[in-house]
Amino acid sequence: MNEIRKTGPVILMVWPYLSVLALFLPGYRVTLPIYIFFTLIVYAFNIWNAWTYPYAESGQSPVFWNMAVKLVHIPFYTGVFAMGCLLLLAMAVPAFLLVSPVLLAALALEDVCLLLTSSMYGISAAVRLRQKGLISSRSAILHILMHLFFVTDVVSAVCLYRQGRKRPRP
């Protein structure tokens, strides 16, 4: 069972990159709905996994997976940002005036869902670190809030990983 739990974050690391593949396959009208269906399953499993994953001092804990997932997603978010900028510029062409907002909304929805799903590991880690006495309540709330926004979630993930490696206070 523990091996299945470890594959959840690994699948979440790779999953957004598969969306690019699903869009560029020849039969994308068939593969895209299948991808969306499995996305719901992957996201639901990872949310459940984040809150039930056993906390271990060995580094295979929510703080580790939170940081790993966030760091692996940086190129994906950068690519989506670049694509969004191109779509905004493309709106100068009348043909893209109606298509670009729909594509931008789809990209934004995918980004927010991915952000919230991957942040569950960080939010779970902040709650657990607070329970263990490794961080204060104020720090836990700050980390939870930071995990709700782009860029700050990565900073919080690295900080939580560093704080999670410390020994509990007496």
Features:
6 helices; 170 residues; globular; 0% strand; mainly alpha
Task: Describe the protein in words.
The protein is mainly α and 170 residues long. It contains six helices and no strands. The chain has helices at residues 2-24, 28-52, 62-90, 99-132, 137-146, 152-164. The mean pLDDT is 89.
Distance between the termini: 33 Å
- The number of helical elements comes to 6
- Main sheet: strands, sense, barrel: none
User: What pattern of helices and strands is seen along the backbone?
Assistant: HHHHHH
Summarize the amount of helix as a percent range: over 70%
List low-pLDDT spans. none
Percentage of residues in DSSP E strands: under 5%
Mean pLDDT: 89
What integer value in Å does the Rg equal?
18 Å
**Secondary structure: number of strands:** 0
Class from secondary-structure proportions = mainly alpha
Shape: globular
Write a brief structural summary.
By secondary structure, this protein is mainly α. The protein is 79% helix and 0% strand. α3 packs antiparallel against α6.
